[in-house]
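Regression check, magnesium ion case 409:
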Amino acid sequence: MEQIEFCKGGGCTAKLGPDILDRVLSRLPAQKRDPDLLVGFDTNDDAAVYRVSGDRAIVQTLDFFPPMVDDPYLFGQIAAANAMSDIWAMGGRPVTALNIVCFPQSWDLNILGRIMQGGAEKVAEAGASLCGGHSINDNDVKYGLSVTGLIDPARVLTNVGARAGDRLILTKPLGTGIVCTAGRVKAADPASMDEAIRSMTTLNKYAAKVLSRYEVHACTDVTGFSLLGHLSEMLGMKRRASGSPDAEDGGGQVAGGRQAGQTDQTSDMTLPDSTGQTAGAGLAGNSNQTDHAVQAGSRNQSGSSPLGAVLHTSTVPHFKWVREFVEEDFFITANGQRNRNHLGDLVEFHNTAFWQQELLFDPQTSGGLLAAVPNEIADEVLTEIKKLGLPCSLIGEVTDQLDHILVTA
Ligand SMILES: Nc1ncnc2c1ncn2[C@@H]1O[C@H](COP(=O)(O)OP(=O)(O)OP(=O)(O)O)[C@@H](O)[C@H]1O
Ligand SMILES: [Mg+2]
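Current build output:
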């Protein structure tokens, strides 16, 4: 049988860089904005939101990438968990999913079967229906989902809208890029690999359900652009970093999309989701969120009120042995360096070791939710999410006293 190399490195490290995206998207021809398109790609949000009636909107996203683990079944689980995550990051609930498959047809089809089985099981756990897909004969494996969710237009959680004084909650540990890089060369301790796989296969549905019970000013999921990259978007910093024109002047109306290329990551191992709860519970019951989320976002976009943040590295959750992987073996990713370069002087480090900096720039696959919540409720929200068994943490706060991100011990 043909010698195959299933995992050459992938996951969210395979995304094109934010600077490249900015340059291309800002040059798309301007289109008249449909008033029912509540969220497009002009704020780099997690998914598009389109209102179909007074109290109902659809949320659309898609994600696919090459394998970052050696086990096809686990890869399918991780890719599906990652693809659906954007729906929960918007405050929605996924209802339908379509498979996106690229696969070399000369390979053993059981491999593809295992990938799709892993994906289908996660779609079922989400309470959504797998209802089709599209399959291409390709040189390399890539897999993911196109997902549609539902949401009340008055309860959309955008990635912008954070306010000074908000505390920042992160619901999963960091370090999937670093750990999978170590795993690809078989240098990862099984304990850290297991931990990373358990985290990547855990649906953000459960943390999102807790967040839906509280007032949340902004929410996103942490993926390829790293914690610092996605936080900078939450603070409205992206355009200052890239110098690209304001999308409201020139942005088009394409609802969104993804790219997958090739990069450096891997691993293997197993681990089922440990947070089993009733499938399809969705995000009903949020009494506090109103359309302030959509409107408050424009405050940041206009640049009229620059926001910054303070992050405390001692509170940032991370996988075992990440420090050793970085300091002793230099298992860092090319896209971590890309993220560092892209953010430039928007990030200021005080007393922050190199490994901690790398952790904050590390591209995450199926990372956790990052939410900005009012200070008064932050501890309670954290306690509730911790009850799910998630290693979540309050990692910093939003401030109007800075226009950049200060990282301290
Ligand atoms: N090819 C594309 N065409 C149009 N918009 C795109 C394209 N690729 C990405 N985008 C948009 O750019 C923004 C950032 O994309 P990105 O894939 O980083 O979204 P994300 O949700 O933050 O990432 P992830 O899916 O990893 O969580 C999103 O609004 C997305 O819809
Ligand atoms: Mg996202």
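Comparison notes: The mean pLDDT is 84. The chain has one domain: 11-249+258-408. No diff flagged against the previous build.
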